Amino acid sequence: MTRSWILPLLLVVCGSAVATSSAISGSPAKAAVLLLVFLVLAGVHSPLIFPRPVDVQEARRRSAADGRPVVLWRPGCKYCIRLRFRLGRNASRLHWVNIWRDPAGAAAAREANNGNETVPTVIVAGQAHTNPDPAWVRAQLPPRA
Fold it and tell me: What sections of the protein cross the membrane (predicted)?
């Protein structure tokens, strides 16, 4: 198992334990609500909410061809999650690189951020921008064809 799934798995296990405890104590409605909350949190912190990642070399190659920004991210990062949700449908128009899966992507994040793996780092036209405003990122997208 990769570390991307540790937090979501812990949320599911803890939610199951809390819901079971609540159900045993005679409150099945509360147990169902608690389990649902924990499952939603697990889903939000999982890699599943992000578009399919590519490695950083492929992302840079695609970006050079189509002009779309590259996003360096990692699962569980609240700023990455905020960027993903604020971009909405436009998120699939960017090239996403999971730095926990791609060592070269992690190196690119460190290079752009003085040795730190600060994410999200958005690369537009070869220029890195750390934790930019989602509206700014949306404005960097080329017009739809």
Answer: 29-50
| Phi-psi map region of 71: left, alpha, beta (phi>0 left; psi -120 to 50 alpha) | beta
CB 23 within 8 Å of CB 31: yes
Tell me the C-alpha distance between 35 and 2, whole Å.
24
Q: How far apart are alpha carbons 93 and 30 in whole angstroms?
A: 40
Q: Retrieve residue 89's tokens.
A: 């449908």
Cα 19 to Cα 33: distance, rounded to the nearest angstrom? 8
DSSP secondary structure string for all residues of 82-98: HHHHHHGGGGGGSEEEE
Write down the pLDDT at residue 145. 66
The conformational region for residue 136 under phi > 0 = left, psi -120 to 50 = alpha, else beta, is alpha
- pTM score, whole prediction: 0.79
10/92 Cα distance (integer angstroms): 28
pLDDT digits (tens, 9 = 90+) for 36-50: 999 999 988 888 888
Length of the chain: 145
